[in-house]
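Good morning C.,

I know you're traveling, so I'll keep this short. The sequence:
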Amino acid sequence: MKKRKKERNQIAMNRKDNHMEKVILIVEDNLKNLKLFKDLLKAWGYTTLEALDGKQGVELAKTKMPDLILMDIQMPVMDGIEATKILKNDTETKDIPIVALTSYVMVGDEERIRAAGCDGYISKPIDIHELRKTIENYLPK
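The tokens, ready to paste straight into the viewer:
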């Protein structure tokens, strides 16, 4: 267990020390949305990791320590709310910014999502300029 923690910390430190590309984990079950986000992020100079549900997202976040997580909320297996709570309650991943990408836009949804631990909130359909501005807010170049 301590060896894994040390390895994850080393990955994160090496990336920062070497000024490597920032890594963004996309947690999204809709393959069209996933491809769109991946293509945009790569065009903007980011490296991406992808997960199709919250459970995979939590596992990838804990092993790869991304710089930012884009988290869909409504997904199979484990939703984005539960995945966010797990990551924010883990001492190793609690400081990774999580931005919710969601079609939940009713009164109170943003507050509920932020209360679960999401640092940012973008409603779907995504405005590409808003997405880029939000990412750059968390990952200044």
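Safe travels,
E.
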